# Entry
Amino acid sequence: MIVTESLSKRFPRVTALDRLSVDIAPGVTGLVGANGAGKSTLIKILLGLAPATEGTAQVLGLDVTRDGAAIRERVGYMPEHDCLPPDVSATEFVVHMARMSGLPPTAARERTADTLRHVGLYEERYRPMGGYSTGMKQRVKLAQALVHDPQLVFLDEPTNGLDPVGRDEMLGLIRRVHTDFGISVLVTSHLLGELERTCDHVVVIDGGKLLRSSSTEEFTQATTSLAVEVTDTDRCPDGTAALRAALVAAGAVVSDAAGADGLSSSGHVLYVEASGEQTHDLVRDTVAGLGLGLIRMEQRRHHIAEVFRDADAAAAAAAPPATPATAGAPSAPHTTQDGGAPDAG
Ligand SMILES: Nc1ncnc2c1ncn2[C@@H]1O[C@H](COP(=O)(O)OP(=O)(O)OP(=O)(O)O)[C@@H](O)[C@H]1O
# Structure
């Protein structure tokens, strides 16, 4: 659906995209990267609105340098920044955008009503947009991107400025754009966690370079550790320590903290290296033998951010001690520092 080949965009002082090659299939794809990573620049090039310095790109089989107008007929675009005229109602604005996309007047009005209803703005559609909340404005921007029934939409930071509830609602809406209407989505975010639930595929860029492109499932594959938490009892005032000793005596590999899996420790949790069903049975029987209560035993899945935390820790460990400042070269941790962190999802 989107193919780029060694795509670069250089401004006088900064390289926004650096030989980026990606191949994005239909579905919902997240494009994630810290602020300044090059996400908006890539979208503008893909829409044929800005020329690349070098490299090639196709959208829906159309070339971005030659076929910009044809691409924009088939692709919807929700820009990042506030771009709504305050004195105009959502209906007037979205009808106008539909007409600009080539819909005849009646179809434009009908599609506008349908689309605004879909994004949950039906009641307020005749009010001037200057009085809208950030969430309502984001919904109008989404509606105008969908109104001409595109095959694909580019959504640039659609959750920006939203509170957690608004963010969840927007992510749900984005998922339904694909499931209800079959429209493919490329959605950008600087938050790793929120894309985990919404996207089939995630592309991570940093400093204009491709860091990773994988299915969400691959990112969040099951870890090989069982997280186990138990109660204390009169007989075992420190149930966790007793369980640890018993499991080690039985030959299990146990740790308190994130091991190779990158799982974070939370005090009373033990991580037991799992080697199949028998590990579950061993934990169950050992807990029962000690008379402890089993609070939880679960095989966790990775969060996307953990994948990058691990990669960064490995890079830092591999760096020569004399040059710690340059250690973690491709700066994936930007993404986690930005608050996307493991549990934003
Ligand atoms: N017109 C321009 N002239 C000069 N530099 C630019 C221009 N547009 C973008 N840049 C620079 O290119 C880099 C990538 O910017 P871009 O807007 O694509 O990042 P982004 O990942 O979308 O981040 P954000 O969400 O903060 O916009 C940044 O360093 C930015 O300052």
Summary: Residues 2-220 form a domain with the Rossmann fold fold (CATH 3.40.50.300). Residues 258-265, 322-345 have pLDDT under 50 and may be disordered. The chain has twelve helices and 14 strands. The pocket of adenosine-5'-triphosphate is lined by residues 11, 14, 16, 33, 35-41, 157 (CB under 6 Å).
